[in-house]
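Lab notebook, bench 4. Continuing the backlog of folding jobs that were queued last week. Each job is logged with the same field layout so the records can be merged later without manual cleanup. Today's entry covers DUF1440 domain-containing protein, a 147-residue chain. Filled in by technician R.K.

JOB TYPE: sequence-to-structure
TARGET: DUF1440 domain-containing protein
LENGTH: 147
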Amino acid sequence: MNTQNVKAGVLGGLAGGLVFGMLMAMMGMLPMIASLAGSKSAVIGFIVHMVISAGIGLSFGLLLGNRVTGTGAGAWQGAVYGMVWWVLGPLVMMPLMMGMGVQFAQAFTTQNLMSLMGHVIYGGVLGVVFALLRSRTVATRQAVSRA
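JOB STATUS: finished
OUTPUT FIELD FOLLOWS
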């Protein structure tokens, strides 16, 4: 396992989660996320969201980390990864956890399209931050090996 990819993925996931979390707060969505933990608190919703964001970032680092070659690649790979998690999260896993069944028929409602946009933004931030952290780590390693 590449620990640098894991670290960069978690930090990228937290950065993306922070941006997406602010958007969710403005839309009043955090209490719904809190319901996953049996709460209605926006603060609890934000904490749950950030834990999930870190986990998704970690998985990005593990699955795609070696394929990210720069910030442009990170942005588009992250955006696509965010789309995948839009399907897995709000359309499949979250509704199942809430006893509602999968929500594919509801995918193109205004609320779900806004969620898709948020997931794409999350993924783009994740990918760019990941690429920046990895390039810094590689540059540091190269400088140390030359010394």
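OBSERVATION: The radius of gyration is 16 Å.
SIGNED: R.K.
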